[in-house]
Amino acid sequence: MGVEDIIALLARHGQTATYGALAALFEMATQSVMKDREQTHQNSWIVASKTGMPSGYSPEQIDPRLLEFVEKGGKPLKSVDELRTWVLANTTDEDFNEGE
């Protein structure tokens, strides 16, 4: 699974993760993990630790489900361990075999 796969999985399940957690999972710099990626509803599930919202997105670029998630008190996965555990609990064999 790559960065895009993890983002898609988070979006599919309506769960946010921080830039730092995603970057750490792939041993990347936090500042580069979303660099050059479009500001789409799917990508909006990767958020800033302090705000719980994606950085630099206009309101129409944010998935409406994410706004509901935040309003209901949903918390982002902030550490690489939290993200790794969540990914393992929310994937199926099909998620790992999609590119084959």
Task: Tell me about this structure.
This protein has 100 residues and is mainly alpha-helical. It has one domain. 42% of the residues lie in helices and 4% in strands. It has five helices and two strands. The protein has a two-stranded parallel ribbon with strand order 1-2. The protein is globular, with a radius of gyration of 13 Å. The model has no long low-confidence stretch (mean pLDDT 93).
Protein traits:
100 residues, globular, 5 helices, mainly alpha, single chain
Summarize the SSE layout with pairings:
Elements: H1 3-13, E1 17-18, H2 19-25, E2 46-47, H3 64-71, H4 80-90, H5 93-97
Parallel strand pairs: 1-2
Helix pairs in contact: 2-4
Protein name: Methylated-DNA-[protein]-cysteine S-methyltransferase DNA binding domain-containing protein
